[in-house]
Amino acid sequence: MLRKEQNDLVTQTGPGTPMGQLFRLYWHPILNSWELPENDCPPVRVKILGERLLAFRDSTGKLGLIDEFCAHRGVSLWFGRNEEGGLRCPYHGWKYDREGNCTDVPSEPAESGFCEKVKLKSYPCIEKGGVIWTYMGPGDKRPPDPQWEFAGLPEKQRFANRRLSECNWLQALEGGIDSSHVSFLHRGDLATDPLFKGANRANDYNMNDMKPVFEVVEHPGGLYVGARRNAENDQYYWRITQWVMPAFTMVPPRADHPLHGHFWVPIDDESCWAWSYLYHPTRPLHDYELQAAKDGKGTFVKYVPGTFRALANKDNDYLINREGQKAGKTYSGVEGIAMQDQSLQESMGPIVDRTKENLVGTDNGIIMARHRLMRAAKALAEKGELPP
pLDDT higher for 130 or 111? Predict the structure, then answer.
């Protein structure tokens, strides 16, 4: 378990917090490319790490991410006109470019130089792998562009999307590196979900050994979380989940299925974006694989139309089917692997009280990830040491 001050340290990512400063030293996915489909298209609201921002594509196709609110009287620029290289506030016509520079204040004479005194906060953006990414840290500490394998593949070999997760980022991440729950929570889906079924031996090992032995090994950027289960002929079956700081996970593959994993991006301290990606490094995704992802199978979900909120959510008790649960169709009664995870992560409350936990050996990956994060955040705050 953690002390309250430790729990606060690892869960709080707003401006000025130690963990927030750590997160700001990494690139994070914020939007799908299709959400800004063309030059001068409408801006999109982005909330990340407790900051309210606007993303837009200007007249030349370049991306901008700036403070949502006009420097004049605080009007949301989401209502603004995206035209001629910037966003113009509809209230009094103040205009801003993609770097937050004020380029026009119609009520002030140009020779006054008033525009030069006004600037909104802005962050750089890049587009890679069908995803728009941002970096929110100091310019002189900007890391290399994202090199995740899926983002460098042709479009036909990858798919990514996001969903709203109504809980703190860390409890969502911890579900992503907890390999022991698969034998229980997902046991009804491994043989039927189109993105999991067919890997019969791997699925059998998961089902037949309910007491995996965990070995966790540090690497420069995070952890390898190994779960060992018994196989035939006195052999072992290993599944190794990768966690890369601060909030990226890769789930080990099954047979020739595509690989998948997540980014857990804090919106604020009580919600996050759960990004799921699916890809195959050596072949295009099959039509049925891509369609399954779009239909909410595997680690994806069905949406409330027009939103990124899951159709099964806390307001409708995740559409739980008690008869199906009793009959063994799903272990929890909730349909879909992603929603089985999310329903339980959200059930803990917006920020789980880790002072009340009782952890066991299968939680070693979670324990080590927490301590790795706390060490890195403290080293950055107290000594200025950059994380990996």
Answer: 130
The pTM of this model reads 0.94
Amino acid in the structure at residue 218: E
Q: How far is CA 69 from CA 79, 203, 292, 346, in A?
A: 10, 51, 39, 31
pLDDT in tens, 335-354: 999 999 999 999 999 999 99
265-284: pLDDT as tens digits:
999 999 999 999 999 999 99
Confidence of residue 252 (pLDDT cuts 50, 70, 90): confident
